[in-house]
């Protein structure tokens, strides 16, 4: 099971094709998914990666061999798959490696109603059963399931537009960088008929990512968007990742808007509609997020990083909204699932409902100086964490909800191992920029000395 153990992560499957993930594995996972979920029918979709069609077809062979009927939605974003799972009440599987390089691919799985399948909620069972099918072959059930193709893009777009009213906003000029990925498929459908003048960048679907990787967390991948916002005099820019479930926002000055500020902005809007509701934030969003949630009458709940953890906590608490530092945004009205497009519509509504620039709109939601996420490749991750703990002993409070969080007077940082890559990730924040820089540099010096 060595290969499967490597590609089955905490909340999805992801690996290099075909070295780590190939058609026989996809077929075995398809059969295992049906067995674990008990699905009589399910829905699949895929992003534009070159391996997507063949891997999806192999998965469908495994699923139908075990008797499940498959609705194939074809090309789509991950939040389109969640829409399909939620609106049709079917288990679903999205073929994507999100923001990873072109050779990678993977699977994001959910039960009916877009309920996530993670390591503790069935993904480990899928892995173990798939390993058995790989060894002995996928057994045919008494009746093979059917395959039906259906385009769900228009229903998805209509559903999102029904959740955020943009009918009365002022006309806005928007630049969108789709990174040759699924935003190029979904943005035109969602924006159709809205009072928006769209300047598209890299909307042609191309799984080789010829212009830049579809990963807006990397500043280099935002430069074309930032320049286009300035060149066109746009009101804002939006960047989507490979499967278009994350959205990054650029203001009219060409500057990045922190996902924590977007989390706080959307939380305030949702709390205006749902007074007293709970809002989820992961432990590395800005401390300004829970402050603003409380100020708007909401109840902030802190959780660990990762979409399956956020969704589970949202379902447990009935939270109206949740946000992550990585530009994932989750909505109760969207089956507790994440949708970068829905967050983008909230930003457009907040901007278009008043006359000021976006920088002024978000200024009240940005209170602290943050490092952003800084990655370090470290051979001995446990040793590096222990060294950081020793270096900061007695200087603040320690918390191990997810990695190591140290909170001092006017500053905090979190250092945690990635769930999907061999990295230690650092996030630091302070009320004063010089203090944030000093804390950031001290932690990095310890971490990188342990390489």
Automatic annotation (TrEMBL):
Family: Belongs to the phosphohexose mutase family.
Domain Alpha-D-phosphohexomutase alpha/beta/alpha: 6-120, 155-254, 262-367
Lineage: Bacteria, Bacillati, Actinomycetota, Actinomycetes, Streptosporangiales
CDD domains: PMM_PGM
Cofactor names: Mg(2+)
Keyword Chaperone: no
NCBIfam families: PRK09542.1 (NF007088)
UniProt xrefs under SUPFAM superfamilies: Phosphoglucomutase, C-terminal domain (SSF55957), Phosphoglucomutase, first 3 domains (SSF53738)
Organism annotation: Nonomuraea longicatena
Domain called Alpha-D-phosphohexomutase C-terminal: residue spans: 373-445
Database matches in InterPro entries: A-D-PHexomutase_a/b/a-I, A-D-PHexomutase_a/b/a-I/II/III, A-D-PHexomutase_a/b/a-II, A-D-PHexomutase_a/b/a-III, A-D-PHexomutase_C, A-D-PHexomutase_C_sf, Alpha-D-phosphohexomutase_SF
Stated name of the protein: Phosphomannomutase/phosphoglucomutase
Keyword Isomerase recorded: yes
Record's keyword terms, sorted: Isomerase, Magnesium, Metal-binding, Phosphoprotein
């Amino acid at each position: 099971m060595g290969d499967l153990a490597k590609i089955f992560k905490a909340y999805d499957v992801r690996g290099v094709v075909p070295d780590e993930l190939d058609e026989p594995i996809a077929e075995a996972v398809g059969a295992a998914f049906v067995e674990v979920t008990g699905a009589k029918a399910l829905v699949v979709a895929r992003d534009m990666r070159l391996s997507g069609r063949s891997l999806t077809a192999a998965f469908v062979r495994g699923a139908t061999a075990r008797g499940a009927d498959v609705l194939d939605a074809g090309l789509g974003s991950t939040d389109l798959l969640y829409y399909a799972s939620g609106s049709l009440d079917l288990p679903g599987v999205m073929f994507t490696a999100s923001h990873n390089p072109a050779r990678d691919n993977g699977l994001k799985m959910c039960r009916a109603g877009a309920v996530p399948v993670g390591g503790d909620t069935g993904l480990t069972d899928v892995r173990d059963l798939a390993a058995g099918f790989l060894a002995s072959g996928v057994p045919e059930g008494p009746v093979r399931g059917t395959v039906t193709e259906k385009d769900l893009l228009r229903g998805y777009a209509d559903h999102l537009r029904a959740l955020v009213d943009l009918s009365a906003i002022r006309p806005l000029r928007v630049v969108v960088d789709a990174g040759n990925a699924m935003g190029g498929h979904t943005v035109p459908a969602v924006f159709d008929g809205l009072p928006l003048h769209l300047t598209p960048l890299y909307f042609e679907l191309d799984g080789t990512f010829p212009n830049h990787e579809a990963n807006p967390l990397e500043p280099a991948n935002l430069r074309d968007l930032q320049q286009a916002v300035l060149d066109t005099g746009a009101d804002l820019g939006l960047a989507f990742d490979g499967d278009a479930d994350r959205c990054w926002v650029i203001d009219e000055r060409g500057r990045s808007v922190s996902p924590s500020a977007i989390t706080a902005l959307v939380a305030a809007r949702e709390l205006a509609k749902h007074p007293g509701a709970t809002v989820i934030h992961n432990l590395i969003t800005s401390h300004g997020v829970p402050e603003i949630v409380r100020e708007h009458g909401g109840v902030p709940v802190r959780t660990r990083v990762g979409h399956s953890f956020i969704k589970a906590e949202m379902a447990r608490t009935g939270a109206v909204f949740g946000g992550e530092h990585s530009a994932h945004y989750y909505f109760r009205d969207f089956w507790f699932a994440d949708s970068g497009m829905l967050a983008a519509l909230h930003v457009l509504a907040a901007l278009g409902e008043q006359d000021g620039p976006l920088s002024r709109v978000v200024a009240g939601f940005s209170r602290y100086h943050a490092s952003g996420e800084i990655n370090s490749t470290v051979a001995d991750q446990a040793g590096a964490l222990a060294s950081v703990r020793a270096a900061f002993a007695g200087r603040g409070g320690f918390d191990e909800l997810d990695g190591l969080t140290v909170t001092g007077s006017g500053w905090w940082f979190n250092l945690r191992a990635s769930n999907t890559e061999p990295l230690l990730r650092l996030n630091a924040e302070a009320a004063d920029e010089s203090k944030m820089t000093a804390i950031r540099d001290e932690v990095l010096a310890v971490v990188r000395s342990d390489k």
